[in-house]
Amino acid sequence: MLRVLVSGCVGGAAIRFNETGVPVDSPIWRRWTTEGRLVPICPELAVGFPVPRPPAEIVDGTAADVLDGRARVREASGRDVTELFRAAAHRALQRAIDAHVALAVLVDGSPTCGSGYIHDGTFSGITVPGQGVATEALRRHGIPVFQHDELEAAAAALAELERSSG
Prior knowledge:
Structural class: alpha/beta
Number of helices: 6
Number of domains: 1
Largest sheet: 4 strands, parallel
Helix content: 25-40%
């Protein structure tokens, strides 16, 4: 049975930076839960960030740039948290490898887990197409990442992977 890495806040756990979760009401989610496919992780909590925590955004580059040492992740106060975010990305990747996951479903908009959009680095609420540092690390390793609202596409990809792995 193939497994799915998921953001710890997807499903409703109130562990996001602002003490909220992302509720999911989907037969796909319920089936995966019953089947024991879900491998949850909050990369930020895994490296010691508290709940709540200050908002953080990628500045002066992309998630790839952060992993490659060419861009930073900063909190709204200006505090540089780049190394913690890099560690969070590596922790998520290691969890995925250890659990032999086939794909990931991560919360969008996050500087860690975003897969379709992130905030633009100005702390003004503006979003731009992009991905978070954990998503970048997972994709570099060949693990497909889906947004939390793309469960049907993720389920189709998982079914195809199961068919092809026979």
